Amino acid sequence: MKKYSNSRSAFFNCRFLLGFVLFSAGFVLALMSLTARSPLSAQSPTGEANGNKFGSSYRNDVSPPLRELPPWSEVDRKEEHEANENPKIPHRHKDEADTVVQNRHSASSSTLNAVAPNLAAALSNFDGIPFPGVGCNCAPPDTNGAIGKTQYVQIVNEGYQVFDKTTGNSVLGPNSISSIWTGFGGACETGGDGDPVILYDHLADRWVVTQFAKATSNGPITDECVAVSTTADATGSYYRYGFHLGSNFYDYPHLSVWPDGYYMSMNVFNSSGTSYLGPQAFAFDRSKMIAGLPASFVSPVGPLGGSVDPFLPADLDGPTLPPGGAPATFVGFPGQSTNPNYTTYHFHADFATPANSTFTTFANPPAAGYTSLCPTTRACVPQAGVTSSSYLDGIGDRLMFRLAYRNFGDHESVVGNYTVSANGVAGVRWFELRNVTAGPVAVYQESTYQPDSIWRWMGSAAMDGQGNIAIGFSASSTGIKPQIRYAARLATDPLNTLGQGEAHLYDGTGSQSGTGNRWGDYSALVIDPVDDATFWYTNEYYASNASFNWRTRIGSFKVASASPTPTPTPTPTPTPTPAPDFTLAITPSSVTLNRGGGTASYTVTITPSGTFSSSVTLSISGLPSGASGTFTPNPATQSSALKVTVASSVSKGTYTFTVTGTGGSPTKTHTAAAKLVKNQKP
């Protein structure tokens, strides 16, 4: 250590004392300032009622225009690291034969070159944000983007950039996502940790930027930071919100736009990230957030359980709204061990009276069988030029972003995808469900796209205004380095096929080594709101064999230049959605009392089916004179304790009584019977 003379030491002591005094004064002023503003505590005001959790943002304000924020500084860069834990979901699926594999590029050809002309080359094709992702210095980038009227915004861990969508030129950035919360305080300013999503709310002509955050530096991810632009300009100011969701580890947030709210899915783990607790749905008050007003969130209390597969919320595309009052729809990954299905949930969020919110299972349309992709390892997808230890994570345990919804008037469609193993390689399983809000929900079409020996994964699906479907994805093998491709179908193509073949958006010239085998947790295919026909896709690639040196690409394309009128095709027999109803049961089936009488205890169990969620009013009949029954509670929703009080004067005998339950709209009535035995033994 360098030594100083006494005089220099005294000088520095004076400087230290002066600095301490100034620091103390500044600290006091800062505390006074924070006290004068809304609290920055990570704890939002929360409550629970009727199976719902609700809370408000712990702060909201408006940011300066993003174009006026200082550019990101190299000083803030973190050490190279994996972006976030992204713990795996427990594997339960039992492999079955895949009966819906498309094992060639079209019905008329088995070679890519013969069908490639059917799918047009990209209209635009330019580089996005490169590693290190503005401060994250991590892998993977979790690349996604959104398209507006004049701008395209890309977001990665942990940066964003705004582009002119006509020229591809950068308008702003790249800059850090956390910079959007400059001056906001709390976890959103200092604890932003990635898993970002950018949405364009075409109903309000606004941009929605989100990432999750840590409330404490060494704690779990507990907060979600949401910013909604004040205008259509993505470089302008934003209404900023910080939401504290709870004390668990809230992973993999994915948001969507719905007319009455911004809806979000989370994969929830315990605070240490070692135990999967199930998915959890959240709804944020969109009407308040696009106006910059204090906003709240609603969620079913707690995650749904470790045996429930992850789900995604439906994200609205196109100019036609869902049917009036339609609930937000969530669709689950078909990872069940038996009878795998696309579990379809309905979320009615009531921000005025949160206790009235409901989250129910609406339908369970069956998914075709498949084989899980690499359920026990992340070193899965091969790349040319690297060892098997650097193979890539295929993430075959969840649906891929987005779940795109569209209302055509005579039917509704949602399209999504996930990754499976098909004939020894990864294939993209895509699906279209119909009538998800009104029912009956049906799997209109689904297929595993595996036309050759190339591995395809990390897909994203969307549908244009004509009903044409496109899928963007990564492609790799031992013979090629990861590429960005897309495939598509016209609405008039045979069902269950991507009949227009496949095109290359960008062929990477490098493979990834190390970095925990992670390769983006998601990519994003979105539809242009101006023409409702141009698809925009972004994903990642490598320019050379390297570790922690990813690049990203952005491109656009159309599936059809004309406006074809879809040829009617037979609608598959829909999976019936059970009507709302319930059944009653009484346990035990018989209770015996002795000569002195007393109290016989039973349990009445109410089992709902379909979307039944009403309370049931209970009554009893058939008891002998001198006996009476009481229910606790009454009305009940799940079970009620029945106590039958029997006087000593009741004669010996066996009495069958009936419990009647009435509830629902229209009213449903059901009965259940049990026995009461009175004998003369003392």
Low-confidence stretches: 1-42, 107-117, 562-577
Strand content: 35-45%
Query: Order of strands across the widest beta sheet?
Result: 5-27-26-25-24-20-21-22-23
Strand runs, count = 42
Report on the biggest sheet: 9 strands, mixed
Q: What structural class is derived from the secondary structure elements?
A: mainly beta
Instruction: Report Rg.
Output: 29 Å
N/C terminus separation: 94 Å
Helix content: under 10%
Tell me, briefly, the overall form: elongated
* Number of discrete helical segments: 4
Mean pLDDT, rounded to whole units?
88
SSE topology sketch:
Layout: H1 6-36, E1 46-49, E2 52-56, E3 59-62, E4 81-82, E5 101-102, H2 112-115, E6 124-127, E7 138-139, E8 144-147, E9 151-156, E10 159-164, E11 170-176, H3 186-190, E12 192-201, E13 206-214, E14 221-229, E15 238-244, E16 249-258, E17 261-269, E18 276-284, H4 286-289, E19 296-300, E20 311-316, E21 328-332, E22 344-348, E23 358-363, E24 400-407, E25 412-422, E26 425-434, E27 442-449, E28 455-463, E29 469-476, E30 483-489, E31 502-507, E32 524-527, E33 534-542, E34 550-558, E35 581-587, E36 590-593, E37 598-609, E38 616-621, E39 627-632, E40 639-646, E41 653-663, E42 668-678
Parallel strand pairs: 4-7, 5-27, 20-24, 36-42
Antiparallel strand pairs: 1-2, 2-19, 3-15, 6-34, 8-9, 9-10, 10-11, 12-13, 13-14, 14-15, 16-17, 17-18, 18-19, 20-21, 21-22, 22-23, 24-25, 25-26, 26-27, 28-29, 29-30, 30-31, 32-33, 33-34, 35-37, 37-40, 38-41, 39-40, 41-42
